[in-house]
Fold these 2 entries.
Entry 1:
Amino acid sequence: MLLTISTTVRPATDLGFLLHKHPDRVQEFSQSYGMARVFYPEAGEERCTAALMLDVDPVRLVRSRGRSTPDYALGQYVNDRPYAASSLLAVALADVFRTARTGRCHSRPELAAGPIPLEITLPVLPCRGGPGLAHRLFEPLGWEVEARAVPLDEGFPEWGDSRYVRLSLRGEVRLADALNQLYVLLPVLDDSKHYWVAPDEVDKLIRAGGSWLAAHPEKNLITRRYLGRRQALARTAFARLAELGDDVEEDLEPPVEEDPAAGEGQGDTPPATEGDAQGDTPPVPEGDAQASRRPLNVLRREAVLGALEELGARKVIDLGCGSGQLVGALLDRPGFTKVTGVDVSSQALTFAARRLKLDRMPDRQRERLELFQGALTYTDDRFAGYDAAVLMEVVEHVDPPRLGALERVVFGTARPGHVIVTTPNAEYNVRYDFLEGMRHPDHRFEWTRAEFREWAERVGGEYGYRVVFRPVGDDDPEVGPPTQMALFSVENAGGGDD
Ligand code: SAH
């Protein structure tokens, strides 16, 4: 199994720094099922290529799975694993390029932070769904995709294509993003995970896909396949992606079998049986799954829109707008005469511009909209002059020592008539199956109802805002709602500015 990563950034040998692997050496990394090696077939100023080669030892692979595995069988010794890039390669990639995946690089921080010209090639990749699926998965992430089906036997074209493709990807992409995308999408294309899908796979998926998966048009297929079609896990993942505040419009219905046609029936490995019926965790009772069928992010958006309308706000600024869902919904309502989205992340703003079709937006709408990059912890004149500011699922992304700065900037300086804040209710987390810790790796904290109340009342008192609280989502009698919302309104007792 082979994967190559090339760049033409100058000097191209900086790839060695980004991958934390020296171009002059062959390095070996022992895996439970074989040996991974990294080496550089070329390492010049203009172009540098790193190769990750994985030699799978089928015997070790079987042993590493244990005898209790139901498909422990001779058949497991005779399969395509040693030759085809697959989920094993994804696991090796995650291990070998662990630091590179985080995007940290002390010696070349700017290079690690931004997009660079990349070319990634996988000569043989199992792809259930054929080349078309490879296009659908990688193109929305900005890759130029070349995927060719590998014929079963070149001598016998009438036999047709195998379930393998030769894949190459070209694009200007941040290296850490590329590695995380491969980590998630290789097993998705392969669609026959070699290991048991454990609950912590949801965490791995959210960690690797957090920055791009929620906005991906094939997020349903990706999530379901990645989680080996384990419905309960997929449901948790959807709920948590919705927690990211992004685009999961998924209604958590049972999975629909996707594209059954392509790639199947060539049967050199049995169809995935892993992780289905006899998983490693007991089936989850689906008792109150129907309590609120609509995803939390939709409920939250509606709650915020409803509150803004009630408050009579016309000029609204969405602070930490993410990929712009609320901004889009505000623009659809002509009552909002000015709509502004701000985010610290340029990637979020790129997603927002794409979602809002900024380049094709009719002038009348475009005139009401402003989108810009900004940080909520620094005073910014552009935040002032609004009837209402929204901080939807944003405060919990801010380090506690910086919260005071955010309070000053929003309530003290920008000083809109109203501020709407939503944030997770930590007490509700016990209602999410498999969730351990916080709902998202980037959350710096999650407040209980009492903690949120205390914070909001203290801030309201300090800056002269009245505050009321509202639940969002199904208000559980024991642990409260999944999302909590505070509506702040400036106390205008003494007149003065309005
Ligand atoms: N409000 C959106 C996105 C929530 S995710 C929604 O509910 O759909 C949190 C967002 O806050 C991210 O897009 C993140 O980039 C942004 N953010 C975090 N800290 C920020 C800061 N200090 N200044 C501006 N934006 C910030």
Entry 2:
Amino acid sequence: MARSSQATGQMGVGGAAVSIRNLSKRYNNYNAVVATTIDIESGDFFAIIGPSGSGKSTLLGMIAGYIDPTAGQIVINGRDIVPEPIYRRNIGMVFQNYALFPHLTVAQNVGYPLKIRGVSSAEIAKRVGESLAMVRLDAFASRMPSELSGGQQQRVALARASIYKPSILLMDEPLGALDKNLRDEMQEEIKRFQQEMGVTVVYVTHDQQEAAFLADRIAIMRDGAMTQIGSPRQLYEQPNSRFVAEFLGEASIFPVKSASSKGDGQLQLIVLEDGTQVAIRSELDAGPGSFACIRPERATIGPKARSLRNAYTGTVRESLYTPGSIRYRVDLSGTGCSLKVRVLPQAAIDFLETGSLVDIGWSDDDMTILTE
Ligand code: ADP
């Protein structure tokens, strides 16, 4: 969902809608991006995730203007910008490596885009002050980039990319060089910043957690194409393929041998490849070639499992206590199925050691069908 109510923040001019139509990039005989179509709403925080080499940076480069598409259009506010040079596109860009000018102060770095646009010194000073306040670096205006931490340098890059009030901000792995704690802090910062600016953000990351935290919508790329686009919740709860289910979060996935009926929301009795029977309620057909998928938190362990539609006994093969969750791998008795299970470490829950025999189950709407 677009944040249209926040589309003009205190500093911002609001975001622009971006419509990418049949966009392709071919290098010699390699298709880096293949006929990709995406509609990004004004003020949306749109993340692109996918494995290394799937075409994320190439796509971003084509929007920014430093990579020429082989075919297709990028329509912003009703106009195809592909023929336009970078400086006419009104798009801000933040990279992983900050790309600050080392010989300029923080204030000079942030003011640089205005300077090359011929803005007066008085106006530059005023807007640099506002921009640095937005990223909470007012007190650092006269420092050199080398005197800042990684997170602070990235905030300078953010202030610089947004000082000329672009309607679109592109970010390519902006937190990739930071350590975990700083990354979490910067995620909050970027989210707040985007909401206050009302700017449309297209954000490339390989980190699915980061994408899920930041984005209104996520597109998952594979081999130069979009495999699925949706909210973090849609992608997690209704993945359309094995690839998406495994890329975003953890899942136990089993090949289907046959199913009793079509998936029209009714109960389907499904036989898995190893002969195990499961009951699933889904709109999708669980034909041969499809998969049954269950997320680790959807399985129930303990006596309550006995009353669920899919009820088994099993043996705990692995157990691991991690902060905030307990993870098990449970082999279902008399089957070839092994399930990843995650439970909250509540007071009433025992920690099960490896080798424990347990009841394990899930209801018919805890499993989803993956058609490929
Ligand atoms: P990602 O950002 O998802 O890691 P990229 O967009 O950087 O992927 O690259 C997509 C594919 O295009 C990769 O296989 C990469 O090797 C190829 N590629 C990228 N840039 C070039 C180039 N200038 N010449 C040839 N192949 C390229």
